[in-house]
Amino acid sequence: MSHRLPPLNGLRAFEAAARHLSFKRAADELSVTPGAVSQQVKALEQAMGVTLFRRLHRALVLTPAGEALVPPITTAFHTISKAMETVAPALKGRRLRLGVARKLMSAGGPAIDWLSTAKARTLVDVRASDDVAALMAGKLDALLRPAGGTYPGFHALRVEISTAKGGRESADLVSVPGLAGCREHEAVVRALHRARGA
Q1: Cα–Cα dist 135/141, whole Å
Q2: CA 30 remoteness from chain centre
Q3: Which of 12, 30, 97, 149 is the most exposed place for a label (fewest CB within 10 A)?
């Protein structure tokens, strides 16, 4: 008995575009062009015989069929990803491009120390940066910066992290919304929570 599967590249493009609600951001994540993502989603829609997105001027909106497809597809990709981590740990994805404010880098502490470990370097590409414009332009996936800013349209998590001198520093982890649940982002969040509890 064969599985009833549409084009898998189309499903991957759809899942990324649905998370980001953007062909451009999905393309950046998948290392292809926005046109390729659009064509893959269009081919998927044709194969399924349903429309998954309403394409508005400067915006993507999921149709009811698209909304219904997101949870099971996301679960399926998480399951496949976990299986690959177990069976083929050498299989690499793209590292999370994380900008860390110089003030936080110089303060040090458990979370900042974790970012320089070999394990972290397999998941995160750390750069000294506090540039929200780079995040908005898609040059960074997330920023760890001193708390206090407002970030409409982005996922923001407020944390208290320990410094090397035993003090505390309030910080915001500001991320592209579509990447907030990925394993690389979750690894950074776990490190920050450990630091907060230290």
Answers
A1: 6
A2: 11
A3: 149
Tell me the DSSP string of 147-177: S----TTSEEEEEEEE-TTS-EEEEEEEE-G
Instruction: Give the model's pLDDT for residue 69.
Output: 95
Q: How far apart are CA 180 and CA 110, in angstroms?
A: 21
Q: Is this model's pTM higher than 0.70 or not?
A: no
Supply the DSSP symbol for 26.
H
pLDDT digits over 116-147, tens only? Answer: 888 888 888 999 998 889 888 888 989 999 99
Torsion of CA 179, 137, 10, 87, to 10 degrees: -40
Q: Which residues in the chain land under pLDDT 50?
A: 197-198
Set out the domains of the chain in order of their start, with CATH numbers.
8-87 (1.10.10.10), 96-197 (3.40.190.10)
- What pLDDT sits at residue 37? 94
- What is the rounded distance in angstroms from the CA atom of residue 125 to the CA atom of residue 149? 23
